[in-house]
């Protein structure tokens, strides 16, 4: 077991611990009781996590006492404000008060919805993030971003709400189906690309063991991911500038994900977005070596798409890109790489404007990569 | 014109200015442009404020350029999450981004809804509060509480989201009908009761001028109110303890307001709640002088109710009190006075537990005050 401290200096007195290990679930409630001895727990999870039996392992022998909300159907289709409202209404009707502690058990959707609910219930109650997927363990559980989709764009509504604690139990990854497991690994690739060339090499060298879900390697990945994420979030919790590097591959990724109506998984969409960012980097003369080949080779070994499926409409993808939250003053901004492990900076900014025509040409190419 | 600085030390770097004066509306947008030169403005107001012609005065000659959302019907009946969602969806569909600045023009409901929308749109954009009613100018516009009602309780869902700036234009109070104008003055009475005996005397001495809406007196009230509110909020922005004193009269007040299905105005309900708190104080031996007589006399001169209307059901009022957010660990807590200008403290706490039986007896009496 390994613990990493995340400090959010912009919010006085705020810090929390990320605990990484195997077979942690059964001890979490007892651990959290140390922080909140008198709070009432409320569990938020989804139908898939329930089927995998994880809520029972979390509650140990006390399932009867733990009230819960099961998000159904699981996944992005439930990630809208009506789900958040339903959760808050149920807590309110059952006389949960400010002394509520929400446990979020599941993937990114569960964490985003539960974190959002926690941030608005009685003007904010603590949430403990217990991510159970590759994508949420690598990325979304740490950092305090919460949110749901609007009718037209992803994560349009939400808050910054740091968790009270995070528990990364890599054993839970064994419950994932192969497609979901692999897609989530793209967030680990992204972390390596933006901050750590050595981590990228480590991923290249251990791909087979990673795909075999070797628990000791998975714990190492979790430590790499949490350290990178924590270091960035600590410096810029509200995404004024530096934190935007975590969106590498996400500008095109989110657009493609929405355009596919979520037939493409988040990680698959980000894989396409990473290749798209690479094409833009190439057009802008930022690529001096064969890094695009290395990156594409890794994504392909992970079984990820590296081009936009032909059934998507180019114009819709472009419209969705222009709705991206990083858009400001009609400029569309991208996070781009100078090299593996190093994001490109321009005039002190980590998300840089890219001309509309160049984006259009790159999207054309991305249909045929 | 007078400016008061509010500093929220728990949030690094957060402070904002409250500007108090007459005929301010036409200059506000220009003032805010100094802080946010490149933001797009979005106006949130309601049908009553529109009828009173205030949005036109705010927009000056540029009404066409200012996109807006009109809450309709005005008032508590629209204060639910569907309204917040509708506002956010409209902004999203019109490609408003993180560089949005929301202008909240209206009473407490408009401010609470607009502040909540600002706090969750794209994970938070600035909001400028421009309160136009006695209750919102005295209380809700400063301090950063936002929220909407659930199906069973008031302000059940919301956030703490400090405004970017507040403009208190007392000229706007001339647009209020007599009942709404008077009810809102109860929040000024509350401020005097919890923090400033001299302010209470000032109110007693100037009641006629206040009721005649004398602008120079109204500006003095605004300065008193904002100073008291700011001093409390600065010390305890998230209502861990001290800030609860601002809820004086609100525990019973909110319950009565909900039970009446909002036929009672907020200020009228708080007037009843203040008398109710007085009865509890009396039963607990906290009243040594004739302060209840003075307080009731003032409320009566303001034309406020001082007893629970007989058409309300006692049991419903008691149930709603137990849903109050100040309830914790099954204890119902009240803010109580030691004397005018001084809240009662117990073991370092400003909201103190009161036995259920004593609450029941006090509510009985409050039906027949």
In short:
Chain A is of the alpha/beta class and 369 residues long. Chain A has helices at 28-35, 47-51, 54-59, 81-93, 108-120, 134-140, 178-184, 186-195, 197-205, 207-211, 215-235, 250-259, 266-283, 291-301, 314-322, 356-366, and strands at residues 2-7, 15-21, 40-46, 67-71, 100-106, 127-131, 165-169, 333-334, 337-339, 342-343, 352-353.
Describe this protein's structure:
2 copies of one chain form a homodimer. Chain A is of the alpha/beta class and 369 residues long. A 7-stranded mixed sheet of chain A has the order 1-2-7-6-5-3-4. A two-stranded antiparallel sheet of chain A has the order 8-11. In chain A, helix 12 packs across helix 13. The longest helix of chain A has 21 residues. Chain A is globular and about 60 Å long. The mean pLDDT of chain A is 93. Chains A and B meet through helix 4 and helix 5 of A and helix 4 and helix 5 of B.
By oligomeric state, this entry counts as homodimer
Low-confidence stretches of chain A: none
Our count of helices of chain A gives 16
Q: What proportion strand of chain A?
A: 5-15%
Q: Output the helix-strand order of chain A.
A: EEHEHHEHEHEHEHHHHHHHHHEEEEH
Enumerate the strands of the largest sheet of chain A in spatial order, edge to edge or round the barrel: 1-2-7-6-5-3-4
Largest interface: A-B, 44 and 44 residues
Mean pLDDT over the residues of chain A:
93
Mind describing the biggest β-sheet of chain A? Answer: 7 strands, mixed
Radius of gyration of chain A: 20 Å
Structural class of chain A: alpha/beta
Please estimate the helix content of chain A: 40-55%
């Amino acid at each position: 077991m390994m613990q990493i401290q995340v400090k959010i200096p912009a919010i006085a007195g705020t810090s929390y611990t990320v605990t990484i290990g195997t077979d942690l679930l059964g001890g979490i409630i007892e651990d959290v009781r140390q922080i909140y001895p008198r709070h009432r727990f409320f569990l938020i999870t989804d139908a898939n996590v329930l089927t995998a039996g994880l809520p029972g392992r979390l509650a140990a022998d006390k399932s009867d006492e733990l009230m819960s909300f099961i998000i159904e159907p699981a996944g992005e289709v439930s990630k809208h404000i009506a789900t958040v409202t339903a959760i808050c209404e149920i807590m309110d009707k059952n006389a949960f008060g400010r002394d509520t502690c929400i446990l979020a058990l599941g993937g990114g959707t569960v964490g985003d919805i539960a974190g959002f609910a926690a941030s608005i219930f009685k003007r904010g109650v603590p949430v403990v993030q217990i991510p159970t997927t590759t994508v949420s363990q690598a990325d979304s559980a740490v950092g305090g971003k919460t949110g749901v989709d609007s009718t037209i764009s992803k994560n349009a509504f939400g808050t910054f709400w740091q968790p009270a604690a995070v528990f990364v139990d890599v054993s839970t990854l064994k419950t994932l189906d192969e497609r979901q497991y692999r897609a989530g690994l793209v967030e680990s690739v992204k972390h390596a690309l933006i901050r750590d060339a050595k981590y990228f090499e480590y991923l290249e060298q251990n791909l087979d063991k990673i795909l075999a879900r070797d628990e000791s390697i998975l714990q190492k990945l979790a430590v790499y991911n949490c350290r990178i994420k924590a270091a960035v979030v600590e410096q810029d919790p509200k995404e004024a500038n530096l934190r935007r590097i975590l969106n590498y591959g996400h500008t095109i990724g989110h657009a493609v994900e929405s355009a596919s109506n979520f037939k493409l998984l988040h990680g698959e969409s980000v894989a396409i977005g990473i290749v798209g960012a690479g094409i833009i980097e190439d057009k802008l003369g930022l690529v001096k070596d064969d890094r695009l080949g290395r990156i594409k080779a890794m994504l392909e070994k992970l079984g990820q798409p590296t081009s936009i499926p032909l059934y998507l409409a180019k114009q819709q993808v472009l419209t969705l890109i222009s709705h991206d939250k990083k858009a400001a003053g009609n400029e569309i901004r991208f996070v781009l790489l100078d090299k593996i492990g190093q994001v490109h900076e321009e005039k002190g900014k980590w998300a840089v404007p890219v001309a509309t025509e160049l984006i259009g040409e790159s999207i054309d190419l991305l249909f045929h990569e």
